[in-house]
Amino acid sequence: MKHFDYIFTGTGLAALMTVYKMIESGKFTDKSILLIDENSKKDNDRTWCFWETENSIWEKSISKKWESALFGNADFSRSLDLKPYEYNMVKGLDFYNQVFELISKQSNITFANEKVTDINELENHVFVATEKENYTCEKLLNSIYRKSEVENQTQYPVLQQHFIGWFIKSKEAAFNPEQATFMDFSVAQKGNTRFMYVLPSSKTEALLEYTLFSHQLLKKEEYEQEIEKYIQKLGIQNYEITEKEQGSIPMTCYPFWKKNTQKVLNIGTAGGWTKASTGYTFKSSDKKTTQLVAFLLTETDLIKFHKKTKFWFYDLLLLDILDQKNELGASIFSSMFKKGNPSLIFKFLDEETSLFEDLKVILKCPKMPFINALIRSNRYLFH
Questions:
Q1: Is 39's pLDDT higher than 80?
Q2: What percent of the chain has pLDDT over 70?
Q3: What is the CA radius of gyration of the chain?
Q4: Is the pLDDT of residue 383 over 60?
Q5: What pLDDT sits at residue 76?
Q6: How far apart, in whole angstroms, are the C-alpha atoms of residue 106 and residue 35?
Q7: What is the mean pLDDT of residues 275-287?
Q8: DSSP alpha helix (H) spans, the chain
Q9: CA separation for the pair 369, 165 (Å, rounded)
């Protein structure tokens, strides 16, 4: 049975960012590291976006940047000047290639293309079984999401950010490649929070995603019919679909960290790292993984890693509102973006604002839903 210093069960965004930064630090060369995943990470299976004021270490993976974004609903649309931020798009395969190119040069790191079947924490080590092998390690970093554990509890709201996206190439020059459509709520809401998200890479090419923040997923045809309608609304008659993607991201403030132990740390979506109120993952994972690598160099008790912040509570209030009245999403986001300062909103969503700045963003939102959510919040805070 092979023993490792660190095992990563699941190699999603958080795991790969962590390993990449461990290598970049140069301080883990004497540690044996095993990555286990049934997915070999050789497909373009997802797209991430994040905003940044300066170049990051992921520059090589960024395929497109925008300095302007459009926000709209049925009543208004607003062009947002994002400066000093840029909105960046990262295709999954480009990110995997950047990370695995570096991993492949490390003699202390092994990748096992296997499915994890069991994780068992023992007194002196952690045991991991796959369909093919058994392993042990000193520390385990797990990013395998336990869906049933989260969805079978009733204390914390759980919504899904679910979507289908089409990469299309049109014969008509229908897109502005200098502007992303951040959220377009002009689509029929049908009692939910529904919007279109458009990332144009040229005048004739774009990713269009029909996205919902709601409890229930739709049938595949419903997403695709709405994308077709939106394409027609843009005046596009002739186009081809070059690629498709779909996903469902859990949006919850469920306290995943309570499952962390001295030897096992849940990371990524499995650790509650996804921004609960928006589903954005890339930037929050980038920050957390930097903190985690620094933590691993000085601490041995993984329970100590988690720190709860005021932003967890803000997210909780919004999710509580969308859980109770899912149709309010469009009015909440619209009130925030209609007159708000775009760079301040992005800073707020990045969890980098002061309390005074928080209030400048929050006070743009409708008051009563948040007051009611605040009253209800006792049930989360005192259990």
A1: yes
A2: 99
A3: 21
A4: no
A5: 94
A6: 13
A7: 93
A8: 13-25, 92-103, 147-151, 220-233, 282-298, 310-324, 329-339, 342-349, 355-362, 367-376, 378-381
A9: 31
pLDDT tens for residues 173-210? 999 999 999 999 999 999 999 999 999 999 999 999 99
Burial environment of residue 281 by CB neighbours within 10 A (0 to 12, 13 to 18, 19 or more): buried
Taking the alpha carbons of 349, 354, 360, 362 in that order, is the dihedral positive or negative?
positive
The residues, any chain, with a CB within 8 Å of residue 193's CB and separated by 6 or more, are 212, 213, 214, 322, 326, 327, 328, 329, 330, 333
3 state SS of 212: strand
For residue 66, give the 3-state DSSP assignment.
strand
Q: Is the pLDDT of residue 378 over 80?
A: no
Segment 213-219 mean pLDDT: 96
Coil, helix or strand for 62? strand
pTM for the model stands at 0.94
- How many C-beta atoms surround the C-beta of residue 167 within 10 A? 20
CB 158 within 8 A of CB 194: no
Token pair 């090419």 in the structure block, residue: 205
Task: Enter the tokens of residue 72.
Answer: 């709209």
Identity (one letter) of the amino acid at 66? W
CA atoms within 13 A on the CB side of 181: 23
* Contact between 366 and 332 (Cβ < 8 Å): yes
- The strand pair at 134-142 and 264-266 is best described as parallel
Token digits of residue 77? 């649309």
Q: State phi, psi for 242 to the nearest 5 degrees.
A: -95, -25
